Automatic annotation (TrEMBL):
Keyword Cell wall biogenesis/degradation: yes
The keyword Transmembrane helix appears for this protein: no
EC code(s) of this entry: 3.5.1.41
PANTHER family xref list: CHITIN DEACETYLASE 3, GLYCOSYL TRANSFERASE-RELATED
The organism's place on the tree of life at top rank: Eukaryota
UniProt keyword list: Carbohydrate metabolism, Cell membrane, Cell wall biogenesis/degradation, Chitin degradation, Cobalt, Glycoprotein, GPI-anchor, Lipoprotein, Membrane, Polysaccharide degradation, Signal
Protein name, entry field: chitin deacetylase
Compartments in which it is found: Cell membrane
GO CC terms: plasma membrane; side of membrane
UniProt xrefs under PROSITE patterns: NODB
């Protein structure tokens, strides 16, 4: 009697925690015989347009940053493609004019189903090469160097982020966090916990959409605002890596990321399905991956969604060592070692001042610390990427005092929908 009841509850808990993620139908990539040389260097030269995009007036320009509405300048929902910074639009237009952005159709999808392209368009062909269909675009990252467990976690920051960070601190390690931009508004303290511990911060879009379904301008908004938020909250660092939600990218989206923002696309070569898993299933998956050959190295899809997903990783951590893998933060091992485009890492003092927002960024961090005390108390367990999308739909206001409320109220409907879906098994849960 207890077991079905527990299953229902755990199902519900996971569902609440992972509203956008249940449609993660990107299947595993178990291919181990694909070898591709990883780029030794990727970040853009100083004359690349990306370095113009985040410039502002020099420090001491008189700008002040309101504690109350430090996030007011950022989208409170899906970014409006008609209200983007002009520099981003110009950079996109220049890249399109230069022929750098493939002119391929957008995909369409209904939640829970892989995106599809118009008939006649081959998602596995070189024109589209959709990562959802496991087509690997040259230059995108799917594997890590031999023998390396290239660690990363998606969908943060969340209330479970400190659990992960504190554990890794205890073993003197860091990881790469592919963060959802709007989640930083809701969990600034948790964001800072990761950044201040020296962890690498990367981009997982603003509201976690299927990126290939979006227009070019929408893609720019999803990436640009997340970069801007990370930039303003990390002392001016410009992220270097992004991971598409659901692993959904194609030649067009990948090119926008690279040509407009200098971002390199990172997918994965193993998937624990932790967002949908039990401690047992996640542990079994990890054990299997750790027992597999060490070429190529591992890039495992993991999430910092809940204590379930984080604790499953923590439980498996000793096996990483005992099976001889070299655990490393992904961003520090898949390229030249620099984890940002304009800085060595989160702890370095070498942020290049000619391409970034120096003074303001530290203010933003301090403001974030202030706001956290008011927002974090309003959080419910597992408000994560779902918070992003449900807050996005709720039209929340810009003030910090109301920031937590839209999550909770909009959770009710999401919660009910997902409970029904969970109980009836109606959700598509492939892979
Ligand atoms: C792990 O790193 C150490 C030191 O860099 C190296 O000697 C060892 O060969 C690596 N192990 C694997 C499995 O790559
Ligand atoms: C922690 O890791 C760093 C970087 O790998 C290393 O330099 C340092 O010696 C380590 N400290 C301990 C206590 O293991
Ligand atoms: C980011 O910080 C810069 C100052 O460095 C500021 O001008 C800008 O308004 C901030 N962006 C947002 C969206 O708040
Ligand atoms: C931010 O906080 C640090 C330490 O808490 C402080 O030294 C610094 O002056 C603060 N910066 C601003 C702009 O308030
Ligand atoms: Zn995600």
């Amino acid at each position: 009697m207890l077991f079905p009841f527990f299953s229902l509850i755990s199902c519900l808990v996971v569902r609440i925690a992972a509203v956008p993620t249940p449609s993660a139908t990107v299947e595993h990539d178990h291919v181990h015989n694909v070898h591709r040389a990883l780029p030794g260097s990727w970040y853009h030269d100083q004359d690349h347009p990306v370095h113009e995009l985040f410039k502002r007036a020099p420090p001491g320009d008189g700008t002040t940053y309101a504690d109350v509405a430090w996030s007011a300048g950022f989208p409170q929902s899906s970014p409006d493609p008609n209200a983007l910074p002009a520099a981003w639009v110009s950079a996109l237009n220049a890249a399109v004019a230069a022929g750098s952005i493939p002119n391929i159709p957008q995909s369409t999808n209904t939640p829970g189903v892989n995106p599809v392209y118009p008939s006649g368009v081959n998602p596995n062909g070189p024109q589209v090469c959709s990562a959802t269909y496991k087509c690997r675009i040259p230059g995108d990252i799917w594997d890590s160097p031999n023998g390396v467990f290239a660690s990363s976690f998606d969908d943060g920051p969340t209330p479970s982020t400190p659990t992960l960070v504190n554990f890794l601190s205890s073993v003197n390690q860091t990881t790469t966090h592919f963060m959802i931009g709007i989640n930083v508004i809701y969990y600034p303290n948790q964001f800072l916990t990761a950044f201040n511990a020296g962890h690498d911060i990367a981009v997982h879009t603003w509201t976690h959409p299927y990126m290939t379904t979006l227009s070019n301008l929408q893609v720019v908004g999803q990436l640009g605002w997340t970069m801007q938020m990370i930039h303003n909250s990390t002392g001016g660092r410009v992220p270097k890596y992004w991971r598409p939600p659901y692993g959904d990218s194609d030649t067009r989206v990948s090119a926008i990321a690279k040509e407009v923002f200098g971002l390199q696309t990172v997918v994965w070569n193993q998937d624990t399905s932790d967002w949908n898993g039990t401690p047992q299933s996640i542990g079994t998956a990890l054990t299997g991956f750790l027992a597999s050959p060490k070429s190529p190295g591992l890039i495992i899809l993991e999430h910092e969604l809940t204590d379930i997903t984080v604790n499953a990783f923590i439980a498996a951590y000793p096996q990483i060592k005992s099976t001889g893998w070299n655990f490393s933060s992904l961003a520090s091992v898949v390229g030249d070692g620099r984890t940002y485009q304009n800085a060595q890492n989160s702890a370095s003092n070498d942020v290049q001042p000619d391409s970034i927002l120096v003074g303001a960024a530290s203010s933003a961090v301090n403001s974030s610390s202030t706001i956290a005390s008011s927002t974090s108390t309003g959080s419910t367990a597992g408000v994560t990427s779902s918070g992003a999308s449900s807050a996005a739909a709720s039209g929340s206001s810009n003030t910090k005092s109301s920031a937590a409320l839209p999550i909770i109220s909009s959770f009710t409907s999401a919660h009910i929908t997902l409970l029904i879906a969970c109980v009836t098994g109606a959700l598509v849960l492939s892979s």
